[in-house]
Amino acid sequence: MSGTTQKPTGAQKPTGVLVMSYGTPESLEGVEAYYTHIRRGNPPTAEQLEDLTDRYKTIVGGVFPLRENTNRQVEALQLTLDSIAGEGKYVCYQGLKHAAPYIEDGVAAMAADGIKEVVGIVLTPQYSAMSVGGYMKRAQEEADKRGISFVAVKEYHLHPELIDALSKRVQEGLSRFEDGAGANMLVLFSAHSLPAKVLEMKDPYQDQLLATSAAVAAAAGVQNWQFTWQSAGQTGQPWLGPDILETLEKLASEGVKRVLVTPVGFVSDHLEVLYDIDIEARKFAEERGIRLERIRMLNDDAQYMLAMADTVVKAVANEGADV
């Protein structure tokens, strides 16, 4: 999606909605350029490139579900906004951090369409200055260059529709086990790790993830749960832990036999879910006598879309105050 979901029409320009996410390569041929962009222009070593390429081949055989999922999410958000606010009131554009259309491309497309007021929202519901904050900074800078008024949605991690959607998936996941949430059973919430220095910054990321996890557990009627990190980068600096493999090792030593992983920090089927959890973590768990299952991801779930749409509408009604 290089432009809008639908073109603005009429004299009254709609409010633009810049939907931002991490991005993914479109094919195996694009993995090196994608990885280089993530590494701030430094190409990966041959070993690093081979490792990442092999992971993509393992889960999808060269097909990249995240790109298609993101496209569907933006389209579904457009339809939801049309439904709750009326057609022509909002128009969604896509902006990615590490792939085209980049965040700046999305803002440029709005400017070309004459849009003057924009709300920025990231598909990830929890805020961190290192993730969501970085997206918003790029969008704000490009909007300023083009004379566009920009409102940032910082988080919506406790929106009732989001919590309800996730809690239903937890209950559904537990039903796959013979006795549901019986003995030796644990719900393990997870999210992408960040460099540990975020704690020194008093970043709200960890607290918001724990708040989402607690709210989902309560709504699903789950008492036995924990939170863990996953998918830490290999940067030579400390990252938030414990990692999911460390957690599974400890759970095995405590006699836990069944785990339902709930990737509360992710909203889509992509590499960190389809490989890091479904392949790597599941194999690690099975080797230690643990049956590991995972909830279905939100993707373009109607309640998730409603949570985002409601948050966007409220941001506009808030007269420009960041929410």
From TrEMBL:
Its main location: cytoplasm. It comes from the Bacteria. Keywords: Cytoplasm, Heme biosynthesis, Iron, Lyase, Metal-binding, Porphyrin biosynthesis. Fe(2+) binds at residues 192, 272. Fe-coproporphyrin III binds at residues 22, 39, 55-56, 135. It is found in: Cytoplasm. It catalyses: Fe-coproporphyrin III + 2 H(+) = coproporphyrin III + Fe(2+). It is an enzyme of class 4 (lyase). The keyword Metal-binding applies. The keyword RNA-binding does not apply. Its EC number is 4.99.1.9. SUPFAM superfamilies: Chelatase. Pathway: Porphyrin-containing compound metabolism; protoheme biosynthesis. Involved in coproporphyrin-dependent heme b biosynthesis. Catalyzes the insertion of ferrous iron into coproporphyrin III to form Fe-coproporphyrin III. PANTHER family: FERROCHELATASE, FERROCHELATASE, MITOCHONDRIAL. Belongs to the ferrochelatase family. This is Coproporphyrin III ferrochelatase.
